[in-house]
Amino acid sequence: MAAQLDGPRIEPRAGGAARQLVVFLHGYGADGNDLIDIGRAWQAVMPHAAFVSPHAPHPCGQSPTGREWFPLTNRAQSERWLGVGSAAPVLDAFLDAELTRRNLPPRALALVGFSQGTMMALHVGLRRATAPCAIVGYSGVLVTEPDAKPETLAAQIKARPPVLLIHGDSDELIPPQALFMSANGLAALGVPVEWHLSAGIGHGIDQEGLRQGGEFIARRL
């Protein structure tokens, strides 16, 4: 297993012990510092939440100053499937350790991913023994096993937390069609899913997407 994860943290705005934990999972070639400021933007609607944004376990092959959850060389479905599976144990262990450190129940967890981090949030979040209270995925995709039958995937799913998917309609890196493919895939698995398409936005997050993501989690915390 890769080395233990760590990254920047924000303590609850209200002070005292955290009542919820929001974990940000960054994209390929970034690190935990890329998303942690979202926590500061969301503190007003989640004053009792702690935020953490772990650095992915591996140096990025195409961006030496960044990190990756898994390599991306040909962006094939098979590569993504093997990647999320290989990175899942270290992320799962981090989530358990962080909840234990803060004396929080598994249900107090929310996952927020961007791009490759969304792939990880969906893969791990749907397979935890206790469902997170919410998952928000920006500019990503639900990774599935190539040529697997629907019942094979359904058998892997242990949790069905509410999911919000947000994507830019001008995203050239992960086309916006991925939003609808992922939403349909989640719905077929019985996962409650909502989505929002951000007009004029590429591979990134706009203010409306931030607002919707924060309010979606806050309602469920």
CATH topology term = Rossmann fold
**Overall pLDDT level:** 95
CATH architecture: 3-Layer(aba) Sandwich
Strand content range: 15-25%
What is the helix fraction of residues, given as a range? 25-40%
The CATH class is: Alpha Beta
**What oligomeric state is this?**
single chain
Strand arrangement within the widest β-sheet reads: 1-3-2-6-7-8-9
CA radius of gyration: 16 Å
* Count of individual domains: 1
In words, what does this structure look like?
The protein has 221 residues and is of the alpha/beta class. It has one domain (9-220): Alpha/Beta hydrolase fold, catalytic domain (Rossmann fold, 3-Layer(aba) Sandwich), CATH 3.40.50.1820. 34% of the residues lie in helices and 20% in strands. It is built from six helices and nine strands, in the order E-E-H-E-E-E-H-E-H-E-H-E-H-E-H. The protein has helices at residues 36-42, 77-101, 116-125, 150-156, 177-188, 207-220, and strands at 9-10, 20-25, 49-52, 58-60, 63-68, 109-114, 134-138, 163-168, 193-198. A seven-stranded mixed β-sheet has the order 1-3-2-6-7-8-9, with helices on both faces. A hairpin with a 2-residue loop joins strand 4 and strand 5. Helix 2 packs across helix 3. It is globular. The relative contact order is 0.15. The mean pLDDT is 95.
